[in-house]
Each structure stands twice: as structure tokens, then as C-alpha cells.
Amino acid sequence: MPQCPQGVRELGRNHPWLRFPNSCSAEACCCQAPRKHPAIDRQIGAERGLWRHSDQSKKHLSCAALVLGTWGGGLVHGPAAATAASTRPSGSLTGSSSTHEFQAETRKLLDIVARSLYSEKEVFIRELISNGSDALEKLRHKLMSEGKDLPELEIHLETDSKKGTLTIQDTGIGMTREELLSNLGTIARSGSKAFLDMLQNQAEASSKIIGQFGVGFYSSFMVADRVEVFSQLAAPGSPGYCWCSDGSGTFELSEASGVQAGTKIVLHLKKECMEFASEDRVRDVITKYSNFISFPLYLNGQRVNTLQALWMMEPKDIGDWQHKEFYRFIAQSYDEPRYILHYKTDAPLNIRSIFYVPEMKPSMFDVSRELGSSVALYSRKVLILTKATEILPKWLRFLKGVVDSEDIPLNLSRELLQESTLIRKLRDVLQQRLIKFFIEQSKKDPEKYAKFFEDFGLFMREGIVTIAEQEVKEEIAKLLRYESSTLPPGQLTSLSEYASRMPAGSRNIYYLCAPNRHLAEHSPYYEAMKKKDAEVLFCYEQFDELTLLHLRQFDKKKLMSVETDIVVDHYKEEKFEEHRPAEECLSSQDAEDLLAWMRNALGSRVATIKVTPRLDVHPAMITVLEMGAARHFLRMQQLAKTSEERAQMLQPTLEINTGHVLIKKLNQLRLKQPELAHMLLDQIYDNAMIAAGLNDDPRPMVNRLNDLLAKVLEKH
Ligand SMILES: Nc1ncnc2c1ncn2[C@@H]1O[C@H](COP(=O)(O)OP(=O)(O)OP(=O)(O)O)[C@@H](O)[C@H]1O
Ligand SMILES: [Mg+2]
């Protein structure tokens, strides 16, 4: 009987137009003379690497329909059904059957595997499909090394809700009697591991074998009270066998006829597990765990796994649409990725990964989510965890994607990672690579990056605040962007760029936190700073202050809030020359008297009062040691309700500008109209506290302001 070439059947299943119900006799089938098939070649053949046929397309199409009815090694043409059958008959038992006891330790372990090893029952499907995939891989390896043609390599699942069965069949290597006895009779004995050991580092095949522990098969007893395994070695003339067990202590082994090359496993489901006889349920499980298995997977005759494991491919071979499709699958989302990083490496660890940054801006809910990353962990294309929180630092949780690494230590159930230095290493390598990627992107397209930073910057700030290691904080800090006093509004700059512009010898990176550029530029602190002629970064976001406080330094330069710098200058007793003519300011005697009066009037609301030459347009400013931290502390604690309480904690200094009209007027009024002078002083003090961001509730001063306004307007 002629064998049908792979491509035709493949096409038949996926392309309904090939399913013509024409009759096509085996004799007339063009498959016997495979060469060129114009219709198929033109349509899809080229991209799938199909066989080419010489006969007329019509004939061939009908043949395709015919062969849909059969599949697997030893495929036979004949008057078969025109739809794709899924699994083949099981074969009948011949000869005597022998009963075997599981080895003592296997019996005990079987119980553990069936009851408590796996967190979810559904993973038995993943385990059996993975075994099928390994069997196919072994057959492929064997035939290729013998230089033989490959037969159909595929896996079929069939649900039968009437009988309450789920059947999984592969056209793989199959098992001999001895292999059935030892591989399925002894737990923790992995024929696949032995196969790998035999291969000894033949990387190509070894990276594709999934089995390693020798327990996966027994997960079938979580859901089945009887499991039948029909298997026949994929070598001409090999006998078929049937292995059968209820998982309680013994299994039976007998020779069977009519068994197909490969392995077929029939699970007779427990009553409470009948859900796995439902096609929809099984499809969901396959799509979740085994969507990227390298071999075609069919469920009740329909192909399920159509997506490719992109992360295993060469980046240049992947089209945009493939990324979009894959992103939507992995992120369960309908937007598109704005950034894509496909990262493959073999040193220091084996990593195959793809990361996506979603187009959609994260909601507050996403930001505050306590969960870790949304990156899925695969091992050799099989899903291990949908959300592998361990493999990326928490601040990178906005990324979607996949990490696959042969080096990741999995525990027996595969679903748990063993926290180890290796996982930490993986996390570090990925973090470093991602930061590097974002820096590259910011150079490539600054505008696009600015949008990304606006949408996702909060995560970076969180990373800097929460991560303990200074080097890592500084790495993440390379991603921060701010406006700067030396650049036009709207243009952003990085800390690294700031550092590169610093004059030789300067050691501080200055920043000022304010709600927007206007307020920053008109702040008394910025005014005081201007005299130094240093570049100042303007930080507008709520958490910038906290972030920079935590960062403390960058590239050996100190991060210095301009407010703090003013205080530090005092300590250093740095002298700023008064640049105004003396007659524009109060005389030193007047100033001293005024200070004494103010001290008395303000009482415990200030720790010190002094004259500053650093202000022009502002009458006064408040300085506090570590202003940012103080502000943050006040906000968090909601303590200190009154100005006196606040002052006790902050120990503020009030610095006054004796050249300012308000201060000069105050000096006159304190003698002539003490009541008005007190009101004016209170207002100047409150204004300075507001400018310092230390007064969050200006309501109490409204009455005073009204009184002041009334006085101003008295004469009008
Ligand atoms: N469909 C199959 N075809 C051929 N051999 C199989 C098949 N299923 C299981 N085996 C053999 O039985 C062995 C045990 O399978 P089992 O799933 O318990 O362990 P494993 O796949 O080796 O490791 P893991 O626990 O990681 O899955 C396999 O190593 C393999 O040799
Ligand atoms: Mg297995």
C-alpha cells in the first residue's frame, strides 16, 4: 500500500477547500509518483515545504480528502471516511497477559503523585502530551541519524463523553515490552533521561526532550481509575503490547494485535473527572500548556496548536503579525506591543525570551497590583507557570512575555521553581538586558521613549525605591527623564546626560521638585540657586522626590535637592555677596532689630531667622535640613496639625530678603501699626511655608487674607 505524503494530509486538515468528497481510488492516487502539484504548490505548498505531485490537481484534491480518514505510521489509502478521524482502534489483546506488581517504592510514590504532587489536576494532559512529544522527538532523531524519511509525526487526542474516556495517541518511537515494564513500572525512572544521557550533549535533540523526572505519566491516575497503554516500537515487525493498570498496585502486560506504531493511552476517567471527556475543556487545557509543542496536535481531528514558539526562532524570521498574534495570546489582550525585545543567549545562562511592553497605559489598578511579573515561564516550549513572579524583579511587572530556559531548576511537579542562585542570576541577567534595551530605545526614538516613560515611569521609580542594592538603583535611574533648567520646556534629559554636562570639579546633581515648570522656575529656592549658575532638574511627579531621596547618588555624584543645598551652604558658611546697592536694603541695625522683633512674634514657629542675600523677588523662604524627606514624612504621617507642631518637628529657618518691599514695609509697620505688622508677618511666614510645600492646608489663613485685603482697600 502506498504511503500518503505528509503535506497532503496536513493541508487537508487545515484547508477545508481540500475536503472534496470525490472518490479517489488508491490506484489512481498521485501520491505514488510524488513530484509537483501545481495547485497545492501555488496555494500553500511552498510555505509548508510540501511534497510536490505530478498529477492533475483535481485528482489529487480528492485524494487529499480520502486520506483525511487515516493518519499515523502505516497509513493506508482506501475507502476511508472523508473527515479526519482522530485516534485509531486500540487493537485486541493476543496471547496470555501477565500481571506485575509495581515496585514497592513505586506503589507508595504513585499515591503521592496521584494525590499531592500537582497543584492542578488538568496538568496530566500537559504531561501526556509532553511524553508524546518526547516519543516523536526520539523517533525523529533515530530516523534522521539512520538517514531515513520521516513519517507523519503528530499527536492526537480524542474525547468520548459517552464512554467517559480521553485518548492520547502519538506516532512516536513506541515502547518494547521491556521498556513498558521498566518505564511505566518504576516511578522516577525516566526513559527520556536515559535517552538524553545516551545522546551525551547532542544539543539539537537534547534541548527538545521534555521528560526528566520519570513521574509525569503517573499524573494520569489523578483523573483516571483505569489507564490502558497500547504501544508498538516504530520498527518494522515489532509486536504490539497493552499495558493496563488501575494505579493501585499492579499492572497487566499482554501482547496485542492491531496496535499502531507509537503509543496510545486510553484514560477511563473517574466519575468526578468527567470534565476531561469534554472537548472544550480539553482544548482549553491544551491551549494553556501545550500550545507550542513542536509537533501538530489534533483534538477530535482538528488541529489545535497553530502558534509557533516564537521565542525559539531566529528574530529575523519573525514577522510583525506573528508578534502581534503571539502578544495577544500571551498577554490576553487586544492592544499591540509598543516595544518588543527578543532576547536569546547561551551564556551565562541559556535563555530564550520575548518581552513586550503593552501599548495601553497601565491603570492605577495595574500599578498598585501587588503581584509580581506577568511573564510566563516555559521549559522547552511547555508552560510551567503563567505568571512566573520569581524570574523578573517586581518593578518590571508591566512586561508581558515568555522566558524559556533549559537551566531553570524545576521541581518534580514542574510548577514550582526552586529558589536558587540560578533563579537570582536569571533575574539579574534579564533585568540588566531589559534596562539596556530601554536605554537603546530612548536613543533611537526619544519621543516614543518619553511617552513610554510617562506611562510606565512609576514602575521605574518604584524599582529605585524598593531595591536595596545601590548599583541596581543606579542602573534603573538611567531610565529616568526630567526637564532641566538649561533646556527648553518639553525637552527631557537623563541623569547620565546631566552628568556629562557638569563642569569639571562639580560633584552635585541638583534637582527641584515642583508641580510644574512655572512653579519650579518661580520658586524661591530656584531663585536662590540661580546665583550658583548650576543646572537644575525639574521633577514634577509625585514620587520623584522620594525616588531621588532613595537614590542618593548617581555615578559618584550626589543628588542634591536645591532646598537642601541652601542649608548645606550655610553649614559650609559659603558667602554670597550682596550684589544690590546698600541703600536698597535695610541697614544692618534695622535688620537686626527686625529679626529680634520677628523672633519674638513668630515664637516657636521658627527655629532660626536670618538674612539672606540669595533672594530677589521673594520676601522670604523657609529652609529645613533634608526638606524632601521632611515633606514626605509630614505627608505620610499626617501628624503636626498646627504650625507650632510642624515647626517643632522641622526646626525651620526663615530667611528674609531685606531688599524686598514687604520686608522693608514690615520694618516700618512694626513700630507704627503693630497689629497690621503681625498680620503681615504671619502671611509672609505662611507663604514661605506654602512655597516650601510644607503647608498642605491653606484654609486657616483665608480669614487673615481677607482682613489684609480689607485694610489695603480702606483708603479706596
Ligand atoms: N508516549 C510515550 N511513548 C514512548 N515512551 C513513553 C511515552 N510515555 C512515557 N514513555 C516512557 O516512560 C517514561 C516515563 O514517563 P514519565 O512521564 O513518567 O517520565 P518522564 O517523561 O521521563 O519525566 P517527567 O516526569 O519529567 O515527565 C518516559 O521517560 C518514556 O521513556
Ligand atoms: Mg513525562
From TrEMBL:
InterPro entries: HATPase_C_sf, HATPase_dom, HSP90_C, Hsp90_fam, Hsp90_N, Ribosomal_Su5_D2-typ_SF. Residues 81-100 are annotated as: Disordered. The keyword DNA-binding does not apply. It comes from the Eukaryota. GO terms for molecular function: ATP binding; ATP hydrolysis activity; ATP-dependent protein folding chaperone; protein kinase binding; unfolded protein binding. ATP binds at residues 127, 131, 170, 175, 183, 190-191, 212-217, 263, 414. It is found in: Mitochondrion inner membrane; Mitochondrion matrix. Binds to the intracellular domain of tumor necrosis factor type 1 receptor. Binds to RB1. Interacts with SRC. Interacts with SDHA. Belongs to the heat shock protein 90 family. Chaperone that expresses an ATPase activity. Involved in maintaining mitochondrial function and polarization, downstream of PINK1 and mitochondrial complex I. Is a negative regulator of mitochondrial respiration able to modulate the balance between oxidative phosphorylation and aerobic glycolysis. The impact of TRAP1 on mitochondrial respiration is probably mediated by modulation of mitochondrial SRC and inhibition of SDHA. This is Heat shock protein 75 kDa, mitochondrial.
